[in-house]
Every structure is written in structure tokens, then in C-alpha cells.
Design a protein that fits this description.
The protein has 150 residues and is of the alpha+beta class. It has a single domain (4-149), classed as Hotdog Thioesterase (Thiol Ester Dehydrase, Chain A), CATH 3.10.129. The protein contains five helices and five strands. The longest helix is centred in the middle third of the chain and has 15 residues, at 56-70. The radius of gyration is 17 Å and the shape is elongated. The two termini are 15 Å apart.
Length: 150
Amino acid sequence: MLTYEDFTIGRVFPMGPKTVTQEEIVAFAEKFDPQPFHTDPDSDMAAGVGGLIASGWHTCGMMMRMMCDAYLLNSSSMGAPGLDEVRWLLPVRPGDVLTGTTKVVERRISKSRPTLGLLTLEYEVKNQKGETVMLTKGTGMMATREGISA
């Protein structure tokens, strides 16, 4: 199991691949972001952006799944207090194959809870062409080795 001590500055965790389907784009959008360019590939709005595109929030969800599969479910994660930024740079389309990385850029031990580490993480998601579709930065909380043995 990965603990705070394993998240050294500069460490990169590869994520993916995740193939995006039209069906999941539409299903997510119908439930959470029902704008026509997310739900109807034949709409004028979809035509205006070159076809059906995934909601940015769906892209965040797919990144989260890739994180879980890559390292998070095998870690001492204690959740996260939030994201500092999310940038959707290019649309995600049906048939795209997403991959990504999580990079540790800062780390420190909590002053009030010395068995809890705080990590500043940068996430990058790319499509199959190597184009960056999303950049995200946030804070993660990981138990230390001492914290999981207590």
C-alpha cells in the first residue's frame, strides 16, 4: 500500500488508458450536464463544436477513475480538500483514448495531525494524439506509515 512517504516530490504516476464512448458521453450529460453538444450529435450546437463532446465534468470523472485504477485504491488516501484549478483545453470526443499523469509537486506533514500528509498534485490528461485535453491541480491527503499502523 502506498503511503505519504511514497509520494516524493517529482514522482509521476501514469494513468489510463480509458476509451471514451458516445454512449457514456450522452448518459453522463443527460443526467448531469444536458447541453445539446453533450447529448445530441445532430444538434446545431454540436455541429458548432465539430460534433458531440464530453462534458468537462465527465472528463474530470474519467480522470478520477484513472487515478483510482493507477494508484489511489492501493494507497492510504484520506480524500482531498479540493482542486485549485481545472482547465479544459480541448474537447474530448467519442473514440478518444485518454491517458494521463499525476505528478507530486509539493508535500508536507499536517501541523495538527502528524500522521497525515498533504500533497500538491498536478494532473494532465491527454488524448491518443498526445494533445493535452485537461490540466488540474489540487491537494490530496495521505496517511503516513505511522498513521495506517495506529
